[in-house]
Specification:
There is one protein chain. With 290 residues, the protein is of the alpha/beta class. 37% of the residues lie in helices and 17% in strands. The protein is built from ten helices and nine strands. α2 crosses α3. It is globular, with a radius of gyration of 17 Å. One of its GO terms (molecular function) is hydrolase activity.
């Protein structure tokens, strides 16, 4: 294992300025960024389908990084990380475990969105001792009804985006009413705030392999979510076309003591549309001593 993660002399609390770092473990060189004060339990961010480090909303990361050590990374085969993307969610979770433990962390909080939320569930079920708290957003459980349709929805919206010269996330993450369109444009604009050290884009093959893994997850045997005993916050919009909002309610029922927040008039990217409200909720959840 080797890494170039010597701690910076000053605390960086803006994701736009977080230095690009790498760590090699298990034959894979992982690209990552970290920010916020070190020393406490870090919050590890697990990103969505087709996303790289450049796809995290700074309006969510930055408020969390004000008081928490935040780590975001590209899993194997994604963005600037080396290797091939695994074709199962469980293997992706093992890579996340390899990365986190190679950094020297034995306890972390997990913040996950969409595909990241699926990886987070597999991770906490296999390695419960690693995770203190869990935030699952825009996600669903193994065997969740409709998850195997993600590929079809994604390709359809990619075509719509191409025809209108838009970012596919404007269609996939947000409602197509005036409110949703405005939130979508603002979100996409925020993703361009980082100017230097941008990440490599995901390859078509990596994207297709992720879709295959999601379909397999959707058609797999449901996991026993009652085994998740960590404090869990679940959030989504009320009109998620990618991972149906009902699946957030399903996870809430199956994970004892979990908290559920559903944002009105919003889609898969509800947490980005309501970033002010959600970031406050997330920080309060992480800071709660229970």
């Amino acid at each position: 294992m080797n890494a170039n993660h010597n701690p910076p002399h000053r605390i960086v609390t803006s994701y736009r300025d977080a230095p690009a770092r790498t760590l090699t473990a298990g034959g894979v060189t992982y690209a990552y960024r970290e920010l916020g004060p070190t020393g406490g339990i870090p919050v590890v961010f697990l990103v969505h389908l087709a996303a790289t480090l450049d796809n995290w909303d700074p309006r969510i990361i930055d408020p969390i990084a004000e008081g928490h050590h935040v780590i975001a990374f590209d899993n194997r085969g994604v963005g600037a990380s080396t290797g091939k993307v695994p074709d199962t969610i469980e293997a992706m979770a093992e890579d996340a475990y390899t990365f986190i433990t190679a950094l020297g962390h034995t306890t972390v909080d997990i913040f996950a969105f969409s595909l990241g939320g699926m990886i987070a569930q597999a991770l906490v079920l296999k390695h419960p001792e690693l995770v203190r708290k869990l935030i699952l957003t825009g996600s669903g459980p193994a065997g969740g009804k409709g998850i195997d349709k993600v590929a079809g929805t994604t390709y359809y919206d990619m075509v719509r985006a191409t025809l209108t010269r838009s970012d596919p996330k404007e269609f996939l993450f947000f409602n197509r009413d005036a409110t949703g369109k405005a939130a979508a444009r603002a979100f996409v604009k925020r993703l361009d705030e980082r100017i230097h050290d941008r990440d490599a884009k995901i390859t078509v093959r990596a994207f297709q392999t992720q879709l295959k893994a999601i379909k397999r997850w959707g058609r797999s045997t449901p996991a026993d979510l009652s085994k998740i005993t960590q404090p869990t916050l679940i959030a989504n919009g009320d009109h998620d076309r990618m991972v149906p909002s009902t699946l957030s309610e399903d996870m809430h029922r199956r994970i004892a003591g979990s908290e559920l927040v559903i944002y009105p008039n919003s889609g898969h990217g509800g947490i980005f549309q309501y970033h002010h409200e959600f970031s406050r909720t997330a920080v309060a959840f992480l800071d709660n001593d229970r």
